[in-house]
Amino acid sequence: MTPLHDANLHALQALLDAHPVLIGVERAADVIPGMHRNLILHAGPPIEWTRMAGPVRAAVIGGVLYEGLAETEAEALHLIEAGAVTLEPCHHHNAVGPMAGVTTASMMVQVVENRARGNRAYCVLNEGYGRVLRFGANGPDVLEKLRWMNEAFGPLLGAAIEHAGGVDMRALLAESLHMGDEAHNRNRAASVLML
User: Fold this and answer.
1) CA atoms within a 13 Å half-sphere pointing along the CA-CB vector of 120
2) Looking at the whole model, is its pTM more than 0.85?
3) Rg for the chain (alpha carbons), in Å?
4) Please, where are the H alpha helices in 50-93?
């Protein structure tokens, strides 16, 4: 056995032993390690602002507007280019980002705890279809929907999850896979099971 083979076996065993449970919905600044108001977490690997794809850049600008750090796209762009806003990958903070999406301090995130090891991971709420931040849209309609999701829907969902005692994600995903849902683009079964 080589060290790489041993490391792969160790990683695979940790994956097989994992017991992810959705335990709540909380404000990102309250639960994500290192999160602060001027930090925008983005999907994908570490990358400089000038090299980001257009939809990611637009989502970052939308995140700056959503946080109230700027009132216009031009102001947001100036703050980003001046380094007044820090950009880091989600995975550097135990989080995941969908598509070209971003996570900001006041957004609500799902909190998943691995009951086997006690570690936690975080992900913003899914905005649904249409004009959404994770596809790079950042107009007033997108920001209004985000406010509703984070101020009304998120706390309500969090209370329901807490009342239910959490949601066993491994069991939910296993059942949805048997229903033809791969828990990514075909997510109707998982969504119905979650409800």
Assistant:
1) 16
2) yes
3) 18
4) 54-66, 73-81
